[in-house]
C-alpha cells in the first residue's frame, strides 16, 4: 500500500515482532524439567492456556481533526484508543517489564498478559472484499489532497448524514485500522491466541461498500471477516458479528445483507429511525429497523434490536442477550464471533445516553465466549467518553483473559424495551426455531378465516345484559362513531326517567389464557377465560334502582397504532352522549364510573363540557375511577374550579403495582388536586381491584345520594 | 474424629501439604526479574490467574460392597472417583512431574494444572450443621459393627427406599467425602483458588437430616455450604446449589427448604414421582415435584425442574438453563455457587437413560461461572457409567480451568419437556420477577368473575350456522352426554332425507393471540382472533346440497387431565349419533370429515360399529381427516376387512411438521393400511391445511358421489 511509514511506533514495551502467539513453532520450552510429561504442542495450545491478543498501534492516532480548526473538538478523538491502552496498562493487563524478559514471561505465564498483535496496513485485495474499488480509490486520493481541499471535503461531509472529517493521514490510519482488525481476527481463527481485542480507529461499522460514513472510512470488521473466510474456508465458514455500538452498523448490515454465512446482530438505539444513522435519503425503512431480516439466501441472518429510546441499561441488554442474542446465536452455531464493540451505550457516554455498566459488558462478553469454541475477536467501534470506554474495555479484556464477570444485580427490564424484544422475536420467528414459542401466526390470524375475538365477547356481554337487565343498544347517530361503537353503548329501558343514573365507561373485559408453551401460541379455548369486573357493579346498580348506561370502549390503550385515533373518538362519543342523552335525563344523581384506559372518557367529558349549557359537573354527583394505566389530570386553564371539584367529588383507585407508588416524585405529584382523590388499591389488575373495593364504592355512592336527598341539594336542583 | 488413619494415601504426585493456593502468604516470587512491576498480591490473585482446585483422596474408595458378596456389583462403585481422577491425568489437567518441581511449576504457570486440595475428615460440628446428632451417631456406630451386623444392615436397607450398603469403612469414607466438600468450598470462598472440583464419594444429595438414603450417608454439599456460611458470613451469605444429578436431591431440598439464603435448583427425571427417589411413604407429593417451592422464609428458593420422562438431552438442559436456571439465579444473585454434580444424566448412563453430552455439561458450567464473581465449586454426586462420568467430569474441569466450552449444535427442545419448563415457570412466577412474563393469574381466571371462552365462541359459531344454514342443535337425550355436548351437535333441517350427508367431527376453532410481552399474559381482545377452517367446508357442502351434521368436540387433547375421560365420551357420542340418527338417514352418500384430535371420533365409530346391524362402513362413502396430533390406527382383530377398507376409502392429511415425517421408522410405519391413505400436507396447523386441500377434498368427495351414482352402486344400495 505504501513504501515508507511516516512515523515510528511511539511505544511500547512488548514483543511486536511476533505474530503467532507464545506457542508458535519457533518457541519451545528450554527448561525440559519444568514440563516433564510429553505433552504435545496441541495439548499446550488448549485455549485455556493461550493468551488473549491485543492489537494497538499509536499510529492510528494520526487521523485527526485538529489541523482544520484550533478548537474543533470532535468526539471521535485520537485519544480514544490511547486512553484504552493506558487503562489496560494500569489494570496490569499489558506486560511493561524489560523487553528482553518478555519472551520468558510469556513462556512461563502465557495467560498473564495480553499478547501483542502488531497492526499492519490492510491490503487492497482485503479491503476490496468489502468495498468497491472506486471507494478504495477515493479514500486513497485523500492522501494527495491539499489542506484546502481536505478542509473543503470535511466541511461538506460534516454537515451531512455522512458525518466525516478527513485529514491528510486519515487514509493512513484507516488502512492501519482495517489491517489491525484483519490480523486480530486471523490470529484468533488460526488459534495463535485464545481470543483478542483490537483497539483500533477510525471505526468502521457505518462505512458502506461504496462510501464513507459516520466517522468511518473502511468497514474494519467486514474486511477482517471476509479475509478470514477466504483464508480459512474450513474453520471459518459461519461468522457471527455482534454489534453493541449504540448506533446501528448500517455498513455491516448492508455488506452482508444477502450473505447466509454471516449473522449480523445489532443492539442499538433506534427511536423510530430518528437516532443516527437514521433514515436514508430515499425514505425507506431506516437501516436499523427491526423489520430488516436480510434478503435472498441471507434472509434471517440480520437481526436488529433497535431500542425505542435512549436510557437503556443492564436490564435491557442482559434480557436481549438471554431472550434473543444467545438463542439465535446458538442455533446459528458460528465458527467465529466478532464483536463490533462501540462503547457508546456505556454509562457516561453523552451521545448514547444509555447506562450499560462495565460489569454488563463483561457478562455479554462471557456469554459470547461460549460460542465457536471461544474464538472471539473484539474490534473497537464508537464510544466517546474517555473514562467510560476505558472502563468498559478493561472489563471486556479481563473477561477475555479468563476473569469471571463481576457479580451483578440486574435491573428490572423496561416494559417498552420488553415490547421491542417481543417485536424482534416476532420478526425473527420466521427464520429461527428458537424464536417461535410465543409468536402468533398473524397472517393466519388476520386472514378471512378469522374473526376478531372482541366482537364475540362484546356480543356475549350484550346478550347477558339484555337478558338480565333488558338493556338495549343505543343507536349512535353519527356515521364515524357508529361504526366504532356499534353495540358498545347499552342502556336500561327507562333510564331517562330514573332519579339515579350510573354511567359506566370501561375497557373490554380481560382475556386470560395460558399459552400452550410447546405449541407456540396456540391458545386453548377451554383454558381461556374472560374476566369481567363490571357486570357485578351493574347488577348492584340495578338492584338499587339506578338507570345504567354501559359504554364499552374497544381499545383505548395509547401505545398501539390502531388506537392512535381513539382519544378524539372517545371525546366525541362522550360529548355526543352528554348532549343528546345524559344532560336531558331527569336524574338527580348521576355517577360516572371509569374503568381502565377508558377512564379517559371521564376526563374528556369533564373538560370538554366544563362550559356547556351548564358545566356538566354540576349535574354529576360523583366520579369513581379504577386505574391501572395512565393517571390522567382533570384541569382547565380557563376554569379554576374544575380541579378542586374533581378532587372533592372523586375516588380514584390506582393499582398497587402502579409506577406512581414506586417513584416518590410521582407519588408526590399525584397528590395534586387535578388527579382527584387518589387511593392506593391493595390489588392490581382491574377485576381484582373492582372486587376488592366494591363495598366501599357502593357505600360511597349511596352516602352521596343520601346526603344530597337529605339536604335537598340534589345536583339537578343546584343546576 | 479419629486418631489414626488406617490407610496411607496411595497416590500421587502433587502438593498435598498446601491448603491455600499458589499465592498463599508463604509463597513468594523468588525470581524478581520475571515479575518486574510491583503488582500487589491482590492483583496477582485476580481469578483469571488463580488455579482451579481439585479435591481427590483415594481413601474414599474404602467404602465398598465387595466384602458382602463376591459378585455383588453395585453401581456406586469405588472405581467411580478413581476413573475420573485418571481421566483428569490423561487429559493433562493434573501435574504429574517430579514432586520437587511442583512448587516451581505452579508458581510459573498457576493455571496450567489443577491445584490439589487435600481431603480431610469433616468435623462433628460441621456435619451437625446439616444433620441431627442422632444421625451422626448412627453413622459412627457402623464403624463398631461386626461384619455380620453390617451384612444384616445392608440387606435391610438395600431392599427399601433407603437403598444403601454399609461396610466397616463406610463411615470413614463418608466423613472424608464430607470433609473434602467442606475444604473444596472453603478454598473457593476464601479466594485461594479460582473455582474447584471435589471428586468425592460416597455421594450426599439423598441423605436426609436424620437418615441415610440412596447410597448417601452425609449430605456433603449442605455440610460444606453451611460451614462456609458460618465461617464467611460476609462474603458467603447467599448460596445457589444447582443439582444436575438425574435423581432429585431430596436431602438438599429438605435441609434448606425454609432457608431463604440457599437457592436449590434441581434438574431431574421425575416421571410423576415414579423415578427414584420417588414417593415418600406418607404418599404426599413426591419431593421432586415441581410444586415444591420452599416454605416460610424459604418460599421461592426451591426450584424443581422434574422431567416427565427419561431420554432428555442437550436441547432440554440448555433450554432449562436459558429459560429458568439462569434468569432465576441472576435474580437471586448468589455469593457462591455449588454444583451437585451427578453425571447420571450423561449420555451412556443406563440408570439415567438421558443423553446429556460432555459439551453440554461444559456449557452449563460456563453459564454458572458467570455468577458470584466466578466462585463455583463442583461436588460429585451420582453417575455410574465410568466412561460417561469421566468424560463429563473432564469437560467440566476444562471449563473451570478456562477453556471455552466446545462448539455445539443444540438439538430441538422436546415439546413435552417445554411444557415442563412452562409449568415450572408458572409455579415460580409467584416468587421471581423474571418468571412472570407469560404466566396467567389462574386464580382470577377460574374465579366467579370469569367465563370459559370456549362457550362464548361455540355460541357465536352456533349463531352463524343457524343464520347461514338454519342449522339447529340436536338434543342429546343422554344425561351424561348432554351436559358435555349441549350445543355441540348441529344439523341442517332436513338432513334425514338428504341424499348426501357430510358429518364433520372437529376440534374447537383455533384462538390466536399475541400476548402483550410487557404485561404478562394479559391478552388483548382486539388483537385476538378466532380462526376456523371448518365453516368454509360446511358452506361448500350446503351449496352442493349436502345435509350437514357439525360435531364440535370441546377438548379432545389426550394429555390434559381434564380430558382423560374424553375418549370414552366421544365414543359414546358417536355411537349414540349413529344408532339414533345417522344410520336411520335416507342418505346414499355419507362422508366423514375428522379435524384435529376430534378425529378420534371417526376411528371410534368405525371400530365400535364395525359389527352393528350392518357394519357402519358399508354406509360410508369416504373418510377425510386432517391430523396435526396423534395418528390413530383403525383396525380390529375380529374384522380383517376394516383396515383395508379404511386404506381404500380415506384421505388422511397429516401436518407437514408432524413427527412422523421426521423419524424414518415412523414414516415407514404409517404406510400400513390401518392408518388409511396418508398424505403429507405442505402446511401445518389445521386451518392452513384445510384451506390448502379444500379443492382436492371437495373434488375427491364429488368424484366418489359421481362414481357411486354412475355405477348405481351407492353405499345405501350395497348395504
Task: Give a structural overview.
The structure is a homodimer of 719-residue chains. In chain A, helix 2 (79-90) packs across helix 12 (386-400). In chain A, strand 17, helix 19 (600-608) and strand 18 (620-627) form a beta-alpha-beta unit. Chain A folds into two domains: 50-435, Arginase, Chain A (3-Layer(aba) Sandwich), CATH 3.40.800.20; 453-718, Rossmann fold, CATH 3.40.50. In chain A, the strands form three sheets. Chain A has an eight-stranded parallel sheet with strand order 2-1-3-8-7-4-5-6, sandwiched between helices. Chain A has an eight-stranded mixed sheet with strand order 10-11-16-12-17-18-19-20, sandwiched between helices. A two-stranded antiparallel ribbon of chain A has the order 13-15. The radius of gyration of chain A is 33 Å and the shape is elongated. With 719 residues, chain A is an alpha/beta fold. Chain A is 35% helix and 13% strand. Chains A and B meet through helix 3, helix 10, helix 11, helix 13 and helix 14 of A and helix 3, helix 10, helix 11, helix 13 and helix 14 of B. Strand 13 of chain A pairs antiparallel with strand 14 (522-523) of chain B.
